Amino acid sequence: MTKPKEINWFPSFATHHKIPFGSFVFNEQLERLSNELVRAERPPFEYLNDNDISGTYLFYNGEVQFGKPELERLLEWTSKGNTLVVSSMVFEQKLLDTLNLKTRSISNFDHFTDTYQVQLANPNLNNGITYKFDRPTTFYHFNKIDTLNTKVLGFIDKYDEENTKINDSLINVVSQPFGKGNIILSTFPQSFTNYFILQSPNQDYTAALLSYIDLDKPIYIDAHYKSGKKIYTSPMYLFLNTKSLKWAYYIVLIGVLIYIIFEGKRKQRAIPIVRPHRNQTLDFTRTISNMYYEKGKHLDIAQHKIQYFLEYIRDNMHLSTAEINDTFIKNLAARSNNSIEETRSLFELIKNINNSTNINQTQLERLNTLIEQFKSNNQWKTKA
Fold it and tell me: What is the pTM of this model?
């Protein structure tokens, strides 16, 4: 916890990273210089299709590989008068073929003390100054260009520990018109990183590269093709990537484990299961009703059912059943979600049964059916 934190040399190129190879400083300065700066989180193919934009689209990363449809969409957008800037050590092969370019790598594995120094081709921007970069083991340059259409913007030189130039100047930044627009390619994406910009006077080199784009127009910085882009693969990302929260999480887990171990040793007498007494009212009712039914006392059963039904109306519909008239039937139909005709038909049957001295099985079954249908239409109210 107290020892110094190791430097993270991961080649992130992400605008939110303050590590050496992040681009927080560049993004902060570009926000100050540009009139409109937009961070494009989505793939460029989707972003260009969903947004009508113009200006400069800036890509920089250790490797930028477009698919064929995406590259064609970018080139189409560029040809309309926009600027495409791609700074990468590895380019899309189709992009190089389209611009008639080839790249090659050089390495300092045999001479670890050697350093790379970059410079600009324009004398108004150069002033004879070279800018050092001492971190890479491999550097890329353009070994073939289309001399008729390509404009050289920058070079790279290799120097030994005595600051003696080892090789000829190698091209590392080029510009080429494309339709009404312009394409700028650089094999030195490290020029946008915190490590390079904060080593004076290297910031002048990055500023000079920006002079080739129109800062008055919107600039769209790609955040999709970034090695260090934000990726959340787990809900525990916040806990496990913050040291204090991570240890708090581990302590909670350890505490729960200790609690389970010691609390599990406690003995507790088993609590007997007390089963509730069975409600036999329904069984008794069924027995009595079957007895009446088997003896053919249909009228008695119907009268009991009518009395129960009227009680049901008083309890659930809150209507008095002392007088059955048209007003009662209309109110009951409205409250029970039944039609007036259905309600009237039911009570006419009830009236006929009450006035009869004897009924048959068919009349009893019809009474039961109409009452059950009446209740079923009212279920949505009685449930509440």
Answer: 0.59
Of 358, 71, 57, 344, the C-alpha closest to 217 is 57
- The CA distances from residue 292 to 304, 361, 371, in Å, are 11, 12, 19
268 falls within a domain = no
Q: Is 296 left (phi over 0), alpha (psi -120 to 50) or beta?
A: left
Domain containing 39: what range?
24-222
Domain assignment of residue 245, yes or no: no
Domain total in the chain: 2
DSSP-derived 3-state class of residue 87: strand
DSSP-derived pairing of the beta strands 138-144 and 181-186: unpaired
Last residue of a domain, one of 182, 205, 222: 222
Give the chain's residues under pLDDT 70.
108-114, 136-137, 160-164, 229-235, 237-238, 264-270, 279-285, 287-296, 378-384
Please write the tens of the pLDDT for every residue from 15-52. 888 999 999 999 999 999 888 999 998 999 999 999 99
Shared domain check, 205 and 313: no
